[in-house]
Structures are given as C-alpha cells and as structure tokens.
Prior knowledge:
Pathway: Pyrimidine metabolism; dTTP biosynthesis. Helices cover 47% and strands 12% of the residues. The protein has eight helices and five strands. Helix 3 (67-90) packs antiparallel against helix 4 (101-109). The structure holds thymidine-5'-phosphate (TMP) and magnesium ion. Thymidine-5'-phosphate is lined by residues 17, 44-45, 59, 74, 99, 103-104, 107, 155.
Amino acid sequence: MPERKQRGAFIVIEGLDRSGKSTQVSLLEKRCKDAGLPVRLVKFPDRTTPIGKLIDSYLRSDSEMDDHAIHLLFSANRWELAPSIIESLNAGTTVICDRYAFSGIAFSAAKNKPTMSYEWCRAPDIYLPAPDITLFLDVSPEKARERGGYGAERYENAEMQERVEHVFERIGVEIGDGSRWFAVDADREKEAVAEELWERVQPYVKGTEKPLQRLWE
Ligand code: TMP
Ligand code: MG
C-alpha cells in the first residue's frame, strides 16, 4: 500500500469571554512544544492585517460599521489566512486556533437581526478549512462574573454573552457528532481544564492522514 502523507491537526478552541480561552490556548501550545510537536498558534480576529485593523477599531468602538459589513470582514479575515493555515497543516504543523468561524456565527447571530439569520451568518464561512476538533470552553455566567467581569470591548457584557452562548449551543448540536465538537467544563481549575483538552487532542496531535475537510461540507 502506498504510504499516505501525514498532515498536522487543525484544532480550534472556542468559548465565551472570561472562559479562560487565551490561557488554555497557550497551555496547549506549550504542551505540544514540550512534546516536540511542531505547532503554530493562530488567533481570530487577526488584528494585524489591514482587514484586522478595521475589525480592531470596530471592537474598540473607535469606529462604527454596519452589522452585515463587520460580519463579512470577520469572515474575510479568516479567508485571508486560510491559505497559510493549509500550508502549515500540509507541512505537518499542528495549528491551534483561538476562535474561528463558530465565533463568527455566534456573535453575529446573537444580534438577533431579521436580516442576519443563523444561515446568513454561516454562509460566508462555508468551505473554509474545517477543524479536526473544536473544543468549546463552557463557562457559567456566575464563574465569568467571579473571574473579574468583562472588558471594555464591544460584546463584552453579560446580556450579549448569554445570547452568544445560545448560538454556540446550536452550533454544538449541529456539528457535534461525538468527535468533532466537545464542550469542556471551563468552571474548573485551569490545570483540570488543560488536562482534559490535552486528552481530547491526543487522537490528532501526532498528525493525521485524514484529508482536510471544508466547513459545513
Ligand atoms: P477576542 O476577544 O478573542 O480578541 O475576540 C474579539 C471579539 O470579536 C470577541 O467578542 C468575539 C468577536 N468575534 C466576532 O464577533 N466574530 C468573529 O468572527 C470572531 C472571530 C470574533
Ligand atoms: Mg476579548
């Protein structure tokens, strides 16, 4: 049998604000490095690109933008990085991604606009590279509050976060076939959460022969 080529795994971490996402992403990166695995961290929005700078200004409320337009910019920000993500994966590098298309759908659909249905919000991200696994850090509103409240950026308030969570739940049900989407209890100590994440990614981090899929295909 001809030897099939291994590629890196595409791991996405999603979660609400104050879920400990940034901490967990760095811990996971460190564990991969310590295990000698080539790893690259990607974060969305990537605020460094020209599109990312527009998004950054919007999130800081330095500028206003139509809700549809900002939604499409978030998606465009993923599309502009997609070729380099694919390149890294094909080179055998594990890509750990801090937020992805699921945040895109969740935050925009949570605005509850009649012209921004769940389906409409999902559409621009169709055919982006699909993660091998998505880990959703599930934090309770009580715990989020206990962790020091939200920051000053747009969307960082309890009411919005609650609506966002409901959309995330829907996404989880839609793609949660028992292997691709896991909700992880993020109310626990960070070490316990990190341990579970590490266990969950074990089937993937050493590389996979599975062809890279496209989102929602
Ligand atoms: P960050 O706090 O992880 O940098 O994300 C910035 C905010 O942008 C956060 O509230 C989630 C939101 N967001 C969207 O609205 N759409 C998207 O596509 C992404 C990736 C993030
Ligand atoms: Mg934030």
